Amino acid sequence: MMFLSFITDLFQQEFMLRALIAGVMLGVLAPLLGSFVVVRRLSFIADTLGHFSLVGISVSLFLSSLGITMFFDKPLYLGIMFSIVGGLLIELFRRSYTNFQEISMVIVISLGAALSAIFFSLSKKTGSLYNYLFGSILTVTDYYIYIILITALIVALLFIFFGKQILAVSFDESSAKFLGINVNLFQIVFIVMLSIVVSVLLESAGVLLISSMMVIPVAAGMKLGWSYKSTLIISIIFSECSVFFGLWLAYTLNIPSGAAIVSINIIILLVVAIIQRIILKKRIAKMDKIQ
Amino acid sequence: MQININNLSFAYGTKTIITNLSLSLNSGDYLVVRGKNGSGKSTFIKCLLGFNQVKSGMIFFDKVDITEFKSWTKFGYVSQNFDDFNYEFPLTVGELLQISSLKKTDESTRLKLLEKMGIFDIINQNINSLSGGQLQRVFIVRAMLNNPEVLILDEPTASIDKQNKEFFYDTVEELHQLGITIVLITHTDDIERLNYTHLLSMYGDLTTTFEERGVEISGGVL
Q1: Domain ranges of chain B
Q2: Class assignment of domain B3-84+148-216?
Q3: Residue B187: what pLDDT?
């Protein structure tokens, strides 16, 4: 009964429909970019970029509080710009600490957290911090849907034209130049693309949950996938399931939507891990029997 | 491709690894770089491939200084234990080769290479399920996809069995016969089996010798 009323509301209530449309698009974008992040062993990068995007948002709020609006009345713009700056900083530090790449992320995440705290405090809008930390897909606007749509189109075009190059650099950075790839250029293209997607995700997932939306479906997909393509498809299916059931959970229990989506993601990962373990144990027992 | 190295020296911080190394190779030569672990073989290769920035000495490819050199597709490279490659993420052999060949005309070359290397039937297998020998063949195919003029193989027989080692040496020999310049790095002394034209021995105490099959050209540099 509860589920039926959720489905009815999903298509009758405009805010629910907007949440579903945003969720479906982000459900593809997050694991798609997440798969590259996991391949490159940079799972924390989304968190780091999220923190830097938050700096942009806080600066935007600060400028608005001073009466400087221009395009700063939409914090997402500055969020994207700062996220790109954060991404380029990570790339810069990553090259100086080639054997300790995670150090670059600690530096950027710390700077991001510190600057955000300062500007949120200066803007006297610390009350809005909760929304940016945990996000809310149920309150997204039409304008935000268009932003996701444009982002999805840019990402799709980049993958149609440069997918092979980005994958080759992700899997093996050092050999990519022998394939005729301009490695530095594609590192920057990737980091800029990731920075934009992270900023867009921030609005609905929040700074603290962006990484989970990008990485956990891929972690579950990796357990079942036998190829890159199959892993990606499985990850996207898991991601979409978590969006749909997460919305249902948020609607039914009246809990934050970002948290509900991530919780479903974790449940899927646990179920997949348990099933995989059972299958593995059965196979070993079967082999022991044969021997 | 002509490779000229003049007075190459390299150090990690204050630790000197290579001192005043000079050598020349012509198209179609077959260089074996021999030395124990830690003797500087991999450092030498990293300099040759532009991974290590050379501060002392010069490297030229067809008379072009390495700092100006752009035609890296003329090189095929198989790294030691493929350790730069993330082969823990699911990826099939076919997918790996697909992302490694950027030209559309490579399909027939790819199939021929796979058949020649005896790995045609594992095209749909996940690379993390392959044996060391199979993985090595896959990476050689990948290095050969762009028809390189020079093939660089870093410690290729370190993690494979005797049978695969023999297959590997035969394959290298065949590629050499096709006119490809080979640079093979090995830590074993088992080099008599190899039909090399040049030998660079690195002794681990900064001394090196470079010889053209039996004739010493330079060496004993301290």
Answers
A1: 3-84+148-216
A2: alpha beta
A3: 78
What average pLDDT does the segment A54-82 reach?
84
User: Does residue A208 sit in helix, strand or coil?
Assistant: helix
- pLDDT value of position B220: 46
| For residues A254-258, average pLDDT | 88
Q: What is the pLDDT of residues A7-38, one digit of tens each?
A: 888 888 888 899 999 999 999 999 999 999 99
> In the predicted model, what is the mean pLDDT of residues B82-99?
85
Q: Which two tokens stand for residue A162?
A: 């440069």
Cross-chain CB nearest to A175 (options B79, B89, B92): B79
Cβ atoms < 10 Å from Cβ of A17: 14
pLDDT of res. A1 = 58
Residues of chain A contacting B89 with CB distance shorter than 8 Å: 35, 38-39, 171, 222, 228, 231
Write the CA distances from B47 to A164, A231, B18, integer angstroms: 27, 37, 10
**C-alpha to C-alpha distance for A254 and A251, rounded to whole angstroms:** 5
Question: Which candidate in B42, B99, B138 is best for mutational testing of the A interface (most A CBs within 10 A)?
Answer: B99
Q: Are A179 and A168 in contact (CB under 8 A)?
A: yes
The domains located in chain A, with CATH, are 2-290 (1.10.3470.10)
